[in-house]
Specification:
By secondary structure, the chain is mainly α. It is built from 3 helices and 4 strands; from the N terminus they run H-E-E-E-H-E-H. The strands form 2 sheets. Strands 1-4 form a two-stranded antiparallel ribbon. Strand 2 (60-62) and strand 3 (68-70) form a beta hairpin. Helix 1 packs antiparallel against helix 3. The relative contact order is 0.15.
Length: 150
C-alpha cells in the first residue's frame, strides 16, 4: 500500500515540477520583455524633442538579449499604438503613455503569476516532503520487522 502511495506522490511531483519549469520559462520571457520595454521607454524619453515644433526620430535601444531595435519596430511588433517613424513632443508623450500603460499591465499580470508560481512551488515542496516522510516511515517499519525477527 505504501509503495502505491509513493508512486502516486512521485508521479504528482514529476507533473508539478514539469509545470513549474514551464512557468519559470514564461516568467523569464515576461521579465525579459519588461526589461526590453523599459529600455525602449528610456530611449523614447532620451529622444523626446525639446522644442514642441521639432520632429525627431524615436531612436534605437538594446534589448535584454543584446539585440539593437528601432523603437518604432519594437512598438509595432508588440501592438503598442504608434503610426509614425518620428514625432514631435505630443507624439512622443502619447507613445510614452501607451508604452507605460502596457508595462503597467504586464507588471500587474506578473505579480499575479508570481503568486501562482509560489503556490506551485509550495505544492512541489509538499510532495517532496510527503515522499520523504513515506520513505522514512517505510524504513522504520522495515527496521521494526527485522528487529522482531531477530
Amino acid at each position: 500500500m505504501g509503495e502505491l502511495a509513493l508512486l502516486h506522490i512521485i508521479g504528482r511531483f514529476n507533473y508539478l515540477e514539469k509545470q513549474l519549469r514551464a512557468e519559470f520559462g514564461d516568467m523569464q520571457k515576461r521579465t525579459d520583455w519588461l526589461n526590453t520595454s523599459n529600455s525602449a521607454l528610456a530611449a523614447l524619453r532620451a529622444n523626446r524633442p525639446d522644442d514642441e515644433n521639432a520632429t525627431k526620430d524615436y531612436g534605437t535601444f538594446v534589448d535584454a538579449h543584446g539585440k539593437t531595435w528601432r523603437v518604432v519596430d519594437f512598438l509595432r511588433d508588440n501592438g503598442i499604438p504608434n503610426d509614425k517613424d518620428a514625432g514631435n513632443q505630443s507624439d512622443f508623450d502619447a507613445t510614452i503613455s501607451n508604452l507605460k500603460a502596457r508595462i503597467d499591465t504586464e507588471n500587474s499580470e506578473s505579480q499575479i503569476l508570481l503568486i501562482h508560481l509560489q503556490s506551485l512551488m509550495d505544492k512541489v515542496n509538499q510532495c517532496a516532503e510527503l515522499a520523504s516522510n513515506l520513505l522514512s516511515k517505510d524504513g522504520k517499519a522495515k527496521d521494526n520487522i527485522l528487529g522482531n525477527i531477530r
